Amino acid sequence: xxxxxxxxxxxxxxxxxxxxxxxxxxxxxxxxxxxxxxxxxxxxxxxxxxxxxxxxxxxxxxxxxxxxxxxxxxxxxxxxxxxxxxxxxxxxxxxxxxxxxxxxxxxxxxxxxxxxxxxxxxxxxxxxxxxxxxxxxxxxxxxxxxxxxxxxxxxxxxxxxxxxxxxxxxxxxxxxxxxxxxxxxxxxxxxxxxxxxxxxxxxxxxxxxxxxxxxxxxxxxxxxxxxxxxxxxxxxxxxxxxxxxxxxxxxxxxxxxxxxxxxxxxxxxxxxxxxxxxxxxxxxxxxxxxxxxx
Amino acid sequence: xxxxxxxxxxxxxxxxxxxxxxxxxxxxxxxxxxxxxxxxxxxxxxxxxxxxxxxxxxxxxxxxxxxxxxxxxxxxxxxxxxxxxxxxxxxxxxxxxxxxxxxxxxxxxxxxxxxxxxxxxxxxxxxxxxxxxxxxxxxxxxxxxxxxxxxxxxxxx
Lengths: 294, 157
Known about the structure:
The structure holds 2 protein chains of 2 kinds.
Chain A: H1 6-15, H2 26-29, H3 35-48, H4 64-78, E1 88-98, E2 106-117, E3 123-128, E4 137-142, E5 148-152, E6 157-161, H5 171-181, E7 186-190, E8 193-198, E9 206-211, E10 217-225, H6 230-233, E11 244-257, H7 265-268, E12 273-276, H8 282-292
Parallel strand pairs in A: 6-12
Antiparallel strand pairs in A: 1-2, 1-11, 2-3, 3-4, 4-5, 5-6, 7-8, 8-9, 9-10, 10-11
Helix pairs in contact in A: 4-5
Chain B: H1 3-27, H2 30-46, H3 57-81, H4 99-102, H5 106-116, H6 122-129, H7 133-156
């Protein structure tokens, strides 16, 4: 680098030192040419968990104008219904994470309930289960900052951590983002539903199934490459490994509420002691740490 | 495989280390840089139809990575400002670059980064940033002058 001052070069070396080459991840990036395979694996997973598969006969896609109308209505059905006073999204869903290639390799299947304040604070509260938990666990925090707390009912303590732990998989956010994008989606009529298919992001093709009358979300199937849910999967070591995973989200409740406290874990447990996550008893931490990063 | 995709793959295999290093300099973290580059390439592959063929694919990819890194840095800064519902204040995001280089205007800083980490010549840097070769040259000269002054002030201070 002959044209840069050596003192500047020293500075630049400090900022981003030369390091060994990162692991190439082209395999995750490259487009899938075999779309039939994607469709097929969706059917395998859906069948594995006992779902109806209304598109097995391969319904034709709607015209561009019809598709745009369905996408618009589906986006409206996901949006707040109560105006400024109804900004807390309450979703109850049943989630199944499974290998698309091995129907018996269900990494996790459980119920989850989420309250998310969409009015700016972006506070959230989840009640969810993990593979080694017999009872649901309650998590909450802020989507903006990544701050997260977990509630230990046995000691009435909220353990909190403020270092961002990365985004949660959020099927609702994903659906909204896809519908907002608008163009490039394929829409098919399948019985009493519409299937809105999005394979624009090659890493995560998604299908959103909505009610043909109300346009409310019924089911969402998303595929992710890589080993993201490996911690979940490792709970079933006898199941074959998979390089791709599908998450099937069945929406049981999708509504907007006005009470912001529903999305605040601290408001729900006003008398809870507050402690740093590092003070969490090991026995409590080990129950969920692989999935929360706390 | 379509020709643009082939070019993207070629550039990815050939330049991955440099892409990540450049992103590291902008976002301030090697780990985030790898994610930024991954996301940038996912976007490039998805939107490859947008590539008009008016310049080299490489320049288009460098521009996408630079923009993705800048966007990531902005998002992190915004998330920090909007931190709510915290028991205690979270640590501030790390300064992406050392104070000396951080004090450069953004265009000068990007020109320096593209010259050093990406090892691009003036023409290629101009293509990436959408400026003329003369502007690249002037930006580098200005960056040097700025740093010389700053270093001398430090030495005498």
